[in-house]
Structure prediction request, 145 residues.
Amino acid sequence: MNYLINVLILLLTIIIMECLSWFIHKYLFHGPLWFMHKSHHQKSHSFFEWNDLFALLFAGLSLYLMYIDRNDFGYRFFIGLGISLYGLIYFVIHDWFVHRRFKTFKSNNTYLRAVRKAHKIHHKNQGKDKSRAFGLLFVRKDVLK
Prediction:
């Protein structure tokens, strides 16, 4: 039973992270934190962007939660693990597949093509305002029209 609860915590954390990422992206990154996030909307001349610091923040939180619960493997450990897995999923889909930071990942999968299209719609506007499609994993059909 404990195993099932831990898996549920893990999956719920991944879903909550996607929702939280949408909220943070829309209201903070395209708001008061635009000064850092704008590096992601501009043509980059290096591999790293100021925007990458946000990933380090979440990685630190994840590692902290797993570390403080490393002996008991309680709910905090699995929340931290869920944040880590979400970060890995985000990296593979967003940085690797959508933005092609590494040129090795191509796919004709319908879902992945919709994710890429929605993100390109988001980046169509290079500025802070008037952007759409702030999420990554949940793609609304009306955004793709």
Observations:
- The helical segments are 2-29, 34-41, 53-68, 75-98, 110-124.
- The radius of gyration is 16 Å.
- The mean pLDDT is 83.
